[in-house]
Amino acid sequence: xxxxxxxxxxxxxxxxxxxxxxxxxxxxxxxxxxxxxxxxxxxxxxxxxxxxxxxxxxxxxxxxxxxxxxxxxxxxxxxxxxxxxxxxxxxxxxxxxxxxxxxxxxxxxxxxxxxxxxxxxxxxxxxxxxxxxxxxxxxxxxxxxxxxxxxxxxxxxxxxxxxxxxxxxxxxxxxxxxxxxxxxxxxxxxxxxxxxxxxxxxxxxxxxxxxxxxxxxxxxxxxxxxxxxxxxxxxxxxxxxxxxxxxxxxxxxxxxxxxxxxxxxxxxxxxxxxxxxxxxxxxxxxxx
Amino acid sequence: xxxxxxxxxxxxxxxxxxxxxxxxxxxxxxxxxxxxxxxxxxxxxxxxxxxxxxxxxxxxxxxxxxxxxxxxxxxxxxxxxxxxxxxxxxxxxxxxxxxxxxxxxxxxxxxxxxxxxxxxxxxxxxxxxxxxxxxxxxxxxxxxxxxxxxxxxxxxxxxxxxxxxxxxxxxxxxxxxxxxxxxxxxxxxxxxxxxxxxxxxxxxxxxxxxxxxxxxxxxxxxxxxxxxxxxxxxxxxxxxxxxxxxxxxxxxxxxxxxxxx
Amino acid sequence: xxxxxxxxxxxxxxxxxxxxxxxxxxxxxxxxxxxxxxxxxxxxxxxxxxxxxxxxxxxxxxxxxxxxxxxxxxxxxxxxxxxxxxxxxxxxxxxxxxxxxxxxxxxxxxxxxxxxxxxxxxxxxxxxxxxxxxxxxxxxxxxxxxxxxxxxxxxxxxxxxxxxxxxxxxxxxxxxxxxxxxxxxxxxxxxxxxxxxxxxxxxxxxxxxxxxxxxxxxxxxxxxxxxxxxxxxxxxxxxxxxxxxxxxxxxxxxxxxxxxxxxxxxxxxxxxxxxxxxxxxxxxxxxxxxxxxxxxxxxxxxxxxxxxxxxxxxxxxxxxxxxxxxxxxxxxxxxxxx
Lengths: 288, 261, 338
Known about the structure:
The complex is a heterotrimer of chains A (288), B (261) and C (338). Chain A contains 11 helices and 2 strands, in the order H-H-H-H-E-E-H-H-H-H-H-H-H. Chain A has 288 residues and is an all-alpha fold. In chain B, the strands form 2 sheets. Chain B has a 6-stranded mixed beta sheet with strand order 6-7-8-3-9-10, sandwiched between helices. In chain B, helix 5 crosses helix 6 and helix 6 packs parallel to helix 7. At the B-C interface, helix 2, helix 3 and helix 4 of B face helix 8, helix 9, helix 10, helix 11 and helix 15 of C.
């Protein structure tokens, strides 16, 4: 029974990482650069929802609606300040460094606005769910439900709708997409918005579990690990990879408490040595 | 008969369902320019990539100076003496022109990282480079950046870089595309200089005039298959080639028009 | 006379450099010129430069953004600290042994990490640094956990021990100079050229006889060795270490240092590391806002000068030279026509 409990915590933690990883993968696919400030966007999401809930005293539905709008605006603003001016840069590393700068700035920004003391946030539904000897915070179940639902929505958006096709086309070849009349600025912006909504929601869900503080951003490292573990630039792979990371972390507690992070990264490095393309990645032959 | 430097034996390659090489056989002898022609997408560049090891073959073998190199990685093959150039020049835009070209000499000297760190630079680079750039017929400023040179000069420089490494077999991918007549003649001179040094050259080219005038032998590829092989004269009169490659208009071949992109 | 004159002309840069360096060496480490606090900041800048010099090789020449620097520094720093405090080794042998084993360790890590390409390599290198950080924080019995290790001896041999920050500067000055020369030498050697090829086009590099994988691993090992050395120096300079300065965030700072100075230039790396060590101290009065400004500054920096300060200088020199040549050729049009 303990294992069931661990599995559920593992999956829900993995779900949080997956929310970040999905957004990251979408950005990587769309513009070909890493976003090292993704953890800070996640953290920003937690702070913003805290503000909506406790400073503006909005009800739950209000938090959700306003949250999505605010996240979308933040995503667009982020894209215009960090990526857009550098889009024609001959060297992608400049964008990488720019996102590093953004991560530092965001981390300090939230501390200036909301202070350095971690804020508490109440879970969506208070209380503990128990089933036999299994005791679980309801929040874990909400994370799985909401996270899973949101990811499914985004998946449908990408695969089944016109906007999704447009975004995919832009991701594959920006230049060609422009030639056939796609306003790439809009589709890239949409990608950043979706990405921010995903991580912001993740932050909102993680808030009650971890306290809202600037160290929430470090969870992104697990999302990175999940992405690499899952496979190259593949959304499904990233999600499965993150769920695995969550499980490894959760079951790692059986062996050690202090080193649970170390176990995650050790597994990551071992997997990469054995299978450099990640678990689900296929070998992509480079265009010569 | 001259020494066979490169032999491609029954090589196959497919990307997904697209067959780009099907039972390809080809021989390149010392002192020969072997033309490789065919319509766009016929698998010419793929064949070069297979020879230089960028792609692995699905089946068949590649022999270099009698040795089976099929399983060797590209850098070993180039160290053995398979040099190449690319359709569009591939230099490092952020390195100086000198550094870009010195890599060729380094390859020739079989330079090691440590010996280069402690030792001296490639000594005869300047002399040899002078000689080659004279053939290429232009000068440039060493302070210039490589991307600011005209496209034609970049292409010539890439051939020079390959020649600085003294390859035994040089694979040249469309050296004349985008070049003016003057520069095309320079390419010819450079290739002939290579022949003097005893190379075997594989040349992909769309300019018929060029192919017919410099090549000793020609293979014609279509859909990954070699449909004809022979001297330029034989190819020019081969009905199958004319149909596959040029459509029905025979005049274009006789007139030496530029076919392709 | 002419011979001497042409020698001077040819080596003008070197001579000026030598003079400036000598002046710096004798003037800077004096209480009247800089106070002990600034001296310490400059020393730290030089130590960071040693680590950033490694980044010059792997990022500047090889184009591989790595976050392993802080992790490797941590390994170097902790092994020096442990060897000197627990085993009672002298600082120099401890430093050498630490660098040696971290270098060997980087070989293994490089072989593993470079099975990945591009962004995924960077991701995995973050994982590596996080792993080291977790171990350093949690292995209480050995590393002392978050409390760190105190009472690390001063740098020195026998009775020749650095007594204050000024003495440290005199040593670090030569170390930094040596690192600078080594990196410059690498830049001019085959390794530098090969890395340049790998950075811009791996396939073309392979066709020029360069084993891209091996070359990248070598650059990783060099970066690891430099970082370990810097870490060891850091331990001996601060005389107290905790896991905090060896986090992933710090790796990001090293990347910013090299990008600020100019990724294609060793001198730029030095400028970048000194400036980035000095700046946070300088704007400390802004308190909470300092890091915000700093972060936004980085974004602006990438927009205004993606190739850093030295990139800007290079561009300027290049344009001036072009202009001068144009003027020259305009003056002698007849010659041009011939």
